[in-house]
Design a protein that fits this description.
Elements (H helix, E strand, L loop, with lengths): L1 H4 L5 E6 L14 H19 L3 E5 L12 H14 L7 E4 L4 H11 L3 E4 L5 E3 L2 E3 L3 H10 L6 E5 L5 E3 L5 H12 L3 E4 L10 H11 L4 E3 L8 H5 L4 E4 L15 H14 L1
Parallel strand pairs: 1-2, 1-11, 2-3, 3-4, 4-7, 7-9, 9-10, 10-11
Antiparallel strand pairs: 5-6, 5-8
Length: 264
């Protein structure tokens, strides 16, 4: 991840796995072969389009949960293991919405970075949600991965913070008290744009700590976003028709990355 962060305005493209074993919509008939094939096609489109890194996520495992399913976590590790051979760029992982499981998954697969909700208290679609940063950071140390970059999403999707502190203070606190390596700022849901004002406030608060726009960045907004943020995570905009559940559209990726190249 350090080499990725040394780039000017890096772009991380999402590889959204279809539903994994153990989740309600998993297609047992198609099995893991469908999961692997879908992800492999998306990886090819993202890499050929020029992204700087990819991040594997179990976006298809709905309803979302705040603690990893054992079956899902094992399946995701197996899938990433099979797909590593086609990667030409750095990769990270995100097991929704479990920071400890995400760190364990990263250690098992050799990922360079993890994105998750590590801090805060939320009222969410998954119920009351109170993630803990300490066990995840302790696990990173125990598993011998001090190099693993932790990207803290400080305003969770599908949830409202019960913490009434302004976003600038929450960002600064995540760096000071929980040792965030990167701060991510999100919109209200997957695919929804982040408030530029939130990005600016977070960036002003954390100084040299990188701040990434985490959701909803589009071709028509990327110039404004990268005028503030140090990088972006892009998922939905890279999909066919801008549909989160569709395959990655290589032409959309290329147009976006061409625009980023001009901005750089």
């Amino acid at each position: 991840m350090k080499s990725l962060l040394s780039l000017k305005k890096p772009i991380i493209g999402m590889v959204h796995f279809p539903p994994l074993p153990g989740s309600a919509p998993y297609d047992a008939g198609a099995g893991m072969a469908r999961v692997i094939d879908s992800a492999a096609r998306d990886i090819a489109a993202l890499q050929d389009g020029g992204v700087d890194a990819v991040m594997f996520g179990n976006e298809g495992d709905r309803p979302y949960r705040t603690r990893a399913s054992q079956a899902g976590l094992v399946a995701m590790a197996a899938a990433v293991g099979q797909l590593k051979s086609v990667l030409r760029v750095p990769f990270g992982v995100n097991y929704l919405w479990d920071p400890l499981a995400s760190v364990q998954l990263a250690a098992a697969t050799g990922a360079g970075f993890v994105r998750e909700i590590f801090t805060g208290v939320y009222a969410s679609d998954m119920g009351m949600w109170a993630p803990e940063a300490a066990p995840a950071l302790e696990e990173r140390a125990r598993l011998g991965r001090p190099d693993l970059t932790l990207m803290f999403n400080i305003n969770a999707e599908f949830a409202a913070p019960l913490d009434t502190r302004p976003i600038a203070l929450r960002a600064k606190s995540a760096v000071f008290s929980s040792m965030a390596d990167v701060i991510c700022v999100s919109g209200a849901m997957t695919g929804q744009g982040v408030a530029v004002s939130d990005l600016a406030l977070a960036k002003q608060a954390v100084g040299d700590t990188p701040v990434f726009a985490n959701t909803g960045v589009r071709l028509d907004t990327v110039a404004e976003i990268l005028g503030i943020a140090d990088g972006c995570v892009v998922g939905t905009h890279f999909k066919q028709g801008g549909d989160t559940w569709a395959p990655v559209d290589g032409e959309r990726v290329k147009r976006f990355m061409d625009a980023v190249g001009r901005l750089r």
